[in-house]
Amino acid sequence: MAQSSKKAPPREPLLEWISAGIGLVLTLGIMAVIGREALRGETHEPPAIEVVKTAVHRAGTGFVVEVKAINHSGGTAAVVEVEGVLKDGETEVETAGLTFDYVPGHAERRGGLFFTEDPARHTLELRPLGYQRP
Amino acid sequence: MNTRTHPSPETSNRAYAVGLARAFGGALLFALPLLMTMEMWALGFYVHPGRLLLFLALNFLVLVGLSRFGGFERTASLFEDVLDALAAIAVAIIASAAILTLFGILTWDMKLDEIAGKVAIQAVPCSFGAMLARKQLSGGDTSDDEIQAERTAGYAGQLFLMLAGALFLAFNVSPTEEMILISYMMTPWQAFLLILASIAVLDGFVYALGFAGQRDRPQGISWASSFVRFSLVGYGIALLVSLYVLWTFGRSDGIPMAQLAITIVVLAFPAALGAAIARLVV
User: Fold this and answer.
1) Which DSSP symbol is given to A12?
2) Which of B82, B111, B166, B231 could be stapled to B271 by a disulfide with Cβ–Cβ 3.0 to 4.6 Å?
3) Looking at the complex, does the CB of residue B9 fall below 8 Å from at least one CB of chain A?
């Protein structure tokens, strides 16, 4: 009976094995990465965003401070507002702001703040103001 | 023992390569609108990873099913269907990663988690396209089509095709904010009319409008019976698929029941269309 049900085995072309193999590797790989994220269960953590200065340039009539928002937690933040304040001692000299559409968990996003005053001659304070849950 | 002569390995490899190339074409054709949708780029990293995994697993099963009913290569066994589904996923992941990189959406400084999420979610419509490409972009030969028609003829086969079609179209429109917005703008009366319209569309597409692939109502079965057994059941499938897709994308969380119901009805409209079309084209 086992013999009668066994038809002449069709020989799959080598290319079929190769592409199926690639598919298997890619599928398992991508599922492993997402699965690891699922197991860590960090996506519900509140985002922890740090804003740091990466560079200062002269730009047009003023200055641009390039900044980087780093999310140290697994939770994704949307509409992240960032504020940069130039201070002379306790007095605020100038304020600039920007909004990042998304800062995904454990990811970085880059942007810049425009100032008319030279940031090098003041102290620059950078901080995230708030976010939305996507 | 072997009375049938097999084509030489070179020609079968060549034929398979042509099938693969078609699969890439199909993946592009089906997925380009979503590859160019902003919400899809963000979904990859804010979708609940557990739900995304479940969705990918389900997608794989649907691909295996689609391979039974017309993948890019004729299959003789379930094992071959699995091989085809894997190949379709290979094509889908490579195609979506390539296009996203070409568009500058994937960059080298991104974390692996983010890249995996973005590619995985785009791979779903790509893999659908890759799988359907053979059927849609090639002539197909008649003797095999008869075997396929036989498989498709069963009631379970019909229900499966409706599910696959509903899933594809629901997935296609659900990432956008507009689905939610439309449900806010509709009154319950309009939602009620939309339900009737969806069912009419489902029934009309399959039996009445005379598209290629149109089916005659099953013989010896009354209009009412075929309406209930196919069109109404099809709409039920469209509703369930809509709810599932909304849940996967986290769109059902924290929405009051009545609002959720209207959103499901909105999404079930394209899903019903997909269910109807799937029975025609696959």
Assistant:
1) -
2) B166
3) yes
d(CA B80, CA A17): 10
Collect all residues of chain B within an 8 Å Cβ-Cβ radius of residue A31: 53, 56
pLDDT tens digits for B50-109? 999 999 999 999 999 888 875 445 566 788 889 889 999 999 999 999 999 999 999 888
Angle between the N-to-C axes of helices B9-35 and B78-102, in degrees from 0 to 180, rounded to the nearest 10: 50
Three-state secondary-structure class, residue B221: coil
pTM of the predicted model, to two decimals?
Answer: 0.79
Q: B178 Cβ partners below 8 Å, 6+ apart?
A: none
Q: Does A52 touch chain B (CB under 8 A)?
A: no
Q: Does A30 touch chain B (CB under 8 A)?
A: yes
- Helix extents (H) in chain B: 9-35, 38-46, 49-68, 78-102, 112-137, 142-153, 155-173, 178-185, 188-203, 223-226, 233-248, 257-281
Query: Which amino acid appears at position A84 of this protein?
Result: G
* Alpha-carbon distance B244 to nearest alpha carbon in chain A (angstroms): 19
CA B192, B196, B202: angle at the middle one, nearest 5? 140
- What is the tens place of the pLDDT at every residue in A91-129? 899 999 999 988 888 888 999 999 999 999 999 999 999
Picking from B13, B49, B114, the nearest residue to A13 by CB comes out as B13
CA distances, B71 to each of A9, B74, B121, B127, B251 (Å): 20, 7, 21, 11, 32
Cα separation, A80 vs B40, whole angstroms: 19
Task: State whether residue B201 sits within 8 Å of chain A by CB.
Answer: no
pLDDT digits (tens, 9 = 90+) for B141-183: 444 555 555 555 577 888 888 999 999 999 999 888 888 889 8
* Neighboring chain A residues of B116 at a CB cutoff of 8 Å: 29-30, 33-34
Residues of chain B neighbouring A13 (CB-CB closer than 8 A): 9, 12-13, 15-16
How near does any CA of chain A get to the CA of B82, in Å? Answer: 8
- Interface confidence, given as ipTM, is 0.71
User: Who's near A13: CB < 8 A, 6+ residues apart?
Assistant: B9, B12, B13, B15, B16
